[in-house]
Amino acid sequence: ITAIRLLFLPCVLLLTLHTRRANAATKQEIKAYPDFAELLEKYNYDWEPHEVKTEDGWYLTLIRVKTTGKAEPDPSKLPILLLHGSMDSGLGFLKRSTTDDSAWALQMVRKGYEVWINNSRGVKYSYRHERDDEWSLREKWNFNWADMGYYDVPAAIEKVLETSKAPKLTVIGHSQGTAQMFYALSHKQDFFAERVHRFISLASCIMPEPYP
After folding, report:
1. How are beta strands 58-68 and 128-129 bridged, if at all?
2. Cβ count within 10 A of residue 10
3. Would you call 71 helix, strand, or coil by DSSP?
4. Helix residue ranges, H only, 68-175
5. Biggest CA-to-CA distance, the chain
6. pLDDT for position 68
C-alpha cells in the first residue's frame, strides 16, 4: 500500500500542475512580453498572447487574461476587448499600480470576465508587417486612426470570438480607441451588429463635422 501511494502521489501532483498552467503563458511567451509578464505573473493571472493578421498586412498582438487564483471565468459573461489610447499600448490598462493588481482591467478578470487587451499597429507589441523587408519607414508609418478602426478592430474582434467561442463581446475603448471604434462602426455596421453586444467609450475622441 505504501509503495502504491508513493507512485500515485507524484502522478496527482503532475496532473494538477499541468492543469493549472494549461492556459498560461509559456516561458518563451514570457520572454517575448516581459512587461506584461512582470505584472500578470506576479499576481498569478493566467494569460497568453495571441497574434492576428489584419487585412492590410499588420500583425497585432492581443493579450488574453483569462483566469486568476482569485476567480474563475464565468461562462455566462461575454468577453471584453480593450482598445488603448494614443501614445500608449495595451500595457496601460494594467499599469495603475505597480504594488498591487488594482487596475480595473484586472478587476474585471476577478469578476469572472475574460479580458482581451489589444495592441494597435505601430506599438512595440504590434510592430511587424508582411512588407517589412521591402518598404521604407515612411511607407510603414503612413497610416491613421481610420485605418486602425477599419482594419485592426475587426481583426481583433474576430480573433477574440474565434478563440473564446463566445457569440458576442463587449468593447471598451479609451481615447484613440474610441475614435477607432466610432470609425469602424460607421463603416461596417452589419459586421459589428452581429458581433458586438455593447461598446463603452471612455474619454471619447471624436471630431464631428460642422452642423449645417
Report:
1. antiparallel
2. 9
3. strand
4. 104-110, 137-140, 145-147, 153-164
5. 88
6. 77
Q: Is the Cα torsion angle 87, 111, 29, 180 positive or negative in sign?
A: negative
Give the lowest-confidence range in 11-15, 24-28, 77-81, 140-144: 11-15
Grid cell of 99 as nine digits: 504594488
**How many other CB atoms sit within 10 Å of the CB of residue 43?**
16
In order of 33, 67, 90, 162, the CA distances from 124 in angstroms are 10, 25, 10, 25
36 within 8 A of 94, measured Cβ to Cβ: yes
Of the chain, the percentage scoring pLDDT greater than 90 comes to: 71
- Give the H/E segment covering residue 39: helix 34-42
Cell of 21: 498552467
> How many C-alpha atoms does 68 have within 13 Å on its Cβ side?
22
Burial class (CB in 10 A: 0-12, 13-18, 19+), 185: middle
In whole angstroms, give the CA distance from residue 178 to residue 193: 17
> Could you give the CA distance from residue 123 to residue 159 in angstroms, rounded to a whole number?
19
Residues 6+ apart with CB under 8 A from 88: 123, 174, 175, 176
